[in-house]
Amino acid sequence: METGINNILTKLTESEGVVGVLIADEHGLCLGARGIAKASSAGFIASIASHAKELAEMKRNGSDGKDDTPTISVDYGQHTILIRSEGNHTLAVWKS
C-alpha cells in the first residue's frame, strides 16, 4: 500500500500548478505528504473533510439519497487547497 500511496503523491505533485499533496487516513494520520503540504496538517485536513461530509448529509436529509461527497476549496494568498474524502482516505491538493 505504501508504494501505491507514494506513486499517487509523486504523480499528483508532478501535475501542472500543484505545489503540495497530502493523504490522510480517517483518523487524521498522515499517510504521505509532498511539496509545501505539512504532515502536521493531516488532522485538520481530515477534520475539515469530515465536517463538510456531515453538513452535506444534513442537507440531503429527505432528498434523493445520492451520496455526493463534497470537495472543499480553501483559498488563501496565492494558493488554493482542494480537499476531498473518499472512503477511509482524505486527499488535499495545494495549487498555485
UniProtKB/TrEMBL annotation:
Q: Return the Gene3D superfamilies for the record.
A: Dynein light chain 2a, cytoplasmic
Cellular location(s): Cytoplasm; Lysosome
Q: Which domain of life is it from?
A: Eukaryota
Q: Which residues form a coiled coil?
A: none
| Protein name stated in the entry | Late endosomal/lysosomal adaptor and MAPK and MTOR activator 5
Keyword Cytoplasm in record: yes
Q: What is its main location?
A: cytoplasm
| Record-stated family | Belongs to the LAMTOR5 family.
Name its GO BP terms in alphabetical order: cellular response to amino acid stimulus; negative regulation of apoptotic process; positive regulation of TORC1 signaling
Q: Which UniProt keywords apply?
A: Cytoplasm, Lysosome
Organism from which the protein derives: Podila verticillata NRRL 6337
Any Pfam family the entry gives: LAMTOR5
Q: Which GO terms describe its cellular component?
A: Ragulator complex
User: Which GO molecular function annotations are given, in alphabetical order?
Assistant: guanyl-nucleotide exchange factor activity
